Amino acid sequence: MDLGMKDKVAMVTGGSQGIGRAIALGLAREGVRVAICGRTPDILEATAESIESETGVRVLPVIADVMVAADLERFVQATVEEFGTVDIAINNADLITHDVGFFDLRDEDWQEKMDLKLFAPIRLTRLVAPIMQANGWGRIINIGGSSARKVHEVGWAKGATQPGLINLTKRLAWLLGRDGITVNLVEPGIVWTEGHTRTGGKSRAEARSEALAQRAEREGISYEEMDRLALAELVIGRRIESEDVANIVVFMASPLSGAVTGETILVDGGEMPTVRF
Ligand SMILES: NC(=O)c1ccc[n+]([C@@H]2O[C@H](COP(=O)([O-])OP(=O)(O)OC[C@H]3O[C@@H](n4cnc5c(N)ncnc54)[C@H](OP(=O)(O)O)[C@@H]3O)[C@@H](O)[C@H]2O)c1
To answer: What is the Å distance from ligand 1's center to 18 Cα?
Structure first.
């Protein structure tokens, strides 16, 4: 299917690795010119080069920390200088952090999650929405997380922050809808990206094993039983890959999704055991 996005311009925060990289690649495959940002120059530049050589589409790497307002301004400026405009903004950057309990979290841990998950999308939207309003078309997609809907003993900072992003998404959709701009949120379930590896400097498989072992201990069951349950929780019977999330994001970034706005779309392999109305 031709999504009708050729030559549009997208910005993907945290586009150098994991889900962000898959989104940037997915957009470039549709002919979208993409600017990606991240803090680690060699990884960022290698990603831009590899997407460019695979798709033949220009990918602009901009070293920027989304927690720094001036960096976000520079990211937008560099994108406009290179491509002339911004049509699509994907707020994806985040740090997958070690899960600790409420009393072990410091103020700076809470602040970091709020800066990444709320302030960065607020600031980027403030910068790109006027450009999209002038164009009469735009797509803003926030990447949340299914932890917004879960209550368990870890994941406090993301659990408390992500619902704010859902509310922000809905409000912005109402604010910007008549300007041709849709604002949606995509919530991945667990995807074994580089972020999980980085938290402990382990391979993806090791990181997954460790997380499962911790969960098995918490729930008082064997590792094997936990492994079986974790897979069985996924209604689709397999793990979710970055590309599963990226495919939905790319569609939501396309002109074909124009009648959907303010929505939260779960990409969790059916894990969430609730019905939403
Ligand atoms: N993976 C999951 O299981 C999962 C589940 C639910 C939701 N999500 C959400 O999905 C999104 C992507 O997660 P992921 O697993 O793909 O993460 P990841 O593999 O750790 O990749 C994160 C990306 O963000 C960049 N980044 C981190 N902090 C940044 C900062 N301050 N400024 C600019 N870039 C920054 C990283 O590059 P640098 O470190 O070089 O800056 C990297 O490119 C996040 O919003 C996350 O909350 C993921």
So the answer is: 7
